[in-house]
Design a protein that fits this description.
A hairpin with a 2-residue loop joins strand 2 and strand 3. 26% of the residues lie in helices and 32% in strands.
């Protein structure tokens, strides 16, 4: 398992009974987590006095209950880089805050690849494409490492949020191209234009709709889309990263897809694993999805 253990402003304090107790900067939240199927004693003080609690409804969805929580606040992440990244947080629909902290383990990984490539050739322009890019965690990490990044998401609001995070992180003038677009249609247009990239990051949703109502179902769409994206990699790409929070797309499935799509064409090798966050109360690790990494030859 790959563990995001370089956080200072975030921690999973404890987990029990379908929920996790988290610290986001100075604020304590309780949020549901389907992975937490154990019922252990809630001894940590935060369980009784959180700043926010998302209550899951038996009919689906749920709602927030707030206790002295601001509408918006920020946390920082430095990881293994000198530059601090700053993320604006705000609780919104379906339990989210605008950040998936477990992804920091992947930010550190590909940032190291970018930094090493630029050490070997400081004049090189490394082009990274971030698809389904959400509020920009991966985009900012790649840009902070020195890459030129194209950030694509179908939600205008999420792209705006990512831009705010970039400014807060001192990356307002970084070479980032911000696009509100359907990811599949964007890649198809890039193929026609003849544009290529050194690396691709994608964090596809289980289900989603594009700006014009395009439907995305990951089980049906992910492999054809993966094959499509190989057509916009250059001749000697650096890396490819896929994240999955969908139950059926476990590391072994991701490995099979990545080995099928990338290795015959570019060589290199694939590594896949669960990603997780350390739990302070007991030293265990909370699983938080799966990732697959292809590294160029």
């Amino acid at each position: 398992m790959w563990i995001a253990d370089n956080w200072k402003d975030y921690e999973v304090i404890d987990t029990s009974s379908g929920e996790k107790l988290e610290r986001w900067g100075n604020y304590i939240l309780v949020r549901p987590d389907p992975q937490v199927i154990w019922n252990t004693p809630k001894k940590e003080a935060g369980w009784k006095k959180p700043n926010g609690h998302y209550h899951r409804s038996s009919k689906g969805g749920g709602e927030w209950e707030f206790f002295n929580l601001p509408e918006e606040w920020s946390i920082n992440y430095s990881g293994r880089k000198e530059r601090n990244l700053t993320f604006h947080l705000k609780p919104f629909s379906f339990k989210h805050t605008g950040l998936f902290p477990e992804q920091a383990v992947n930010w550190d990984w590909f940032s190291s690849i970018i930094i090493e490539a630029l050490k070997k050739n400081p004049k090189r322009e490394i082009k990274v494409l971030n698809l389904f890019a959400y509020t920009g965690g991966a985009t900012l990490s790649a840009a902070a490492a020195g890459a030129h990044v194209t950030h694509v998401d179908a939600s205008k609001g999420m792209v705006g949020w990512a831009k705010e995070n970039a400014v807060a992180s001192g990356l307002g003038d970084a070479p980032i191209r911000w696009l509100v677009d359907d990811c599949v249609k964007f890649v198809e247009r890039e193929i026609r234009r003849g544009n290529t990239y050194d690396a691709i990051i994608m964090d596809p949703p289980s289900y989603g709709r594009g700006p014009k109502g395009e439907i995305w179902k990951i089980e049906e769409s992910i492999f054809p889309f993966l094959m499509l994206t190989t057509e916009i990699l250059n001749a000697h790409p650096l890396f490819f990263l896929i994240n999955s929070y969908t139950t059926g797309l476990q590391p072994a499935v991701l490995s099979y897809m990545m080995n099928t799509a990338l290795v015959p064409k570019f060589g290199g090798h694939v590594e896949s694993a669960e990603i997780g966050l350390p739990v302070s109360a007991n030293g265990l690790v909370l699983p938080c999805g799966a990732s697959s990494r292809w590294i160029g030859a």
